[in-house]
Amino acid sequence: MQPDPIQIIEAGILPPPAEALSLLGGKAFNLVVLAAMGLPVPPGFVLPTSLCAQWIADGPPPMDEFRARVAGPLSRLEQATGLAFGDARRPLLVSVRSGPPISMPGMLDTILNVGLTRATLPGMMALTGDPRLVWDCYARLVRSYGQVVHGLDPAPFEDASARALLAGQAGGQSDLDTLSLRGLALRYLDIFEDLSGRAFPDTPMEQLLLSVDAVFRSWESERAKTYRRIRSLTDLPGTAVTVQRMVYGNSGPKSGSGVGFTRDPATGEKRLYLDFSFNAQGDDVVSGRRRVTPASMLSRIMPQVAQGLEHVARQMEDRFHDMQDFEFTVEDGRLFLLQTRAGKRSAWARLKIAVDMVREGLIGVEEGLRQLEGLDYAAITRRRVVGAHGDAIAKGTPAGIGAATGAIVMSADVARQFARQGRPAILVSNDLLTEDIEGIASAEGLLAAHGGRTSHAAVVARELGKVAIVGCADLVVAPDRKNCVIAGRRFDSGAEITLDGESGCIYEGRITIDEERPYDELATVESWMLAGPGMMPGIAFPSG
Q: So what CATH class is 52-64+77-242?
């Protein structure tokens, strides 16, 4: 492999030229912009997209070659942080994250806490003064490294986690004490060795090399290829890989991780749309496997952070001239931005946001029309449940708008089968995961026991126009996926239910549904077009 330019992410650098987007990938490009704006971004460096295809074809380079390639940027990262990668006293831990030129939420892999080994554990404990944090990070690393790098079966890890939670009488990993987390980490090490036939790597540089390899290789994963096919994303060079200093949302009650949208991605309303988990790392929010904390809790417990997020949201919209989807971590009350990108949104929100931004003077009419390119104006509707709110059998968190009725299915394969037969289906699951992208695309609606409205799978569902309800505490899907229990009532596969994506209510059977259209926004866009050189072809605006 020939050396490639490696972009540094740190405060005080110049923003990259627009043509660098394809090379750096969207995540790193925007992080460099944020850092140049003076916003709080953890320092790091980027392995560019130009490496991706060759890396996938040839495999990882020899260790000496990789070490030489990253020596310069890693040294600069060490200088910026005052830490050293692999050092026994002041260890630097990093995240290894994907970043294609066009956003693909949850379709590519990420590994956190890279650089933590038996040798660096004591130094990390002395550095942070928090053994609980260190054992939590180690457990997370061993599990994610095993599953992402080596493709290990997640079931034994899930079983070990469930046993630890039961023994510790804990609702989640954030509730486990230090001894419980130590025991869980050691159990994960045994599982890793049993399943992989090798000991967990105790060399930080080996962890980094193979983590980078796994992230590059995730470009060719089935879910990533399926997403690109569904979204007609062609001629992309691959993904970049961003290596950044870890910040720790799992470092106590004044810490946490979250995802925010600068406007409501379902309705388009101008309000901050947040999910947040206290004492958690980012994967807890975006994975779709955990329940999240109501955003109102963040304002009550850390009002300065909440105010900071409001300010940052306006700054990002002013800079990027579009609604932003951003990830953030709070470490002991200090806010860090980990990502921003143009937010995926429903068709309804796409129309409203473009119209509102033109009215606000944030963008011009030409940019507003550009943001609406390819939108099927005639298909923009908002379906609402009529007069049945008292009859709901359960309720969850709405992750979109609209309403959907269909037969319960509990696997992506069955959802695809129903779609081929022209039968509307509601995909019901304990966890709404991006691995189920085919099922998400095939179903009319989605219902999940866990997850938040900003999880990667919920973001994809909203983009695809699916009605989605997540975090339904009254839902349990049987292990064989042949039936589920909703609020104590059993429903077999094929039973009909209705989802109200406005209220989060779930109803048995079919419910009367009305439709409305955004006539005011449609009329505004029509006036833009009529004021221009001519009506755009193929656009129809039904009268109100």
A: mainly alpha
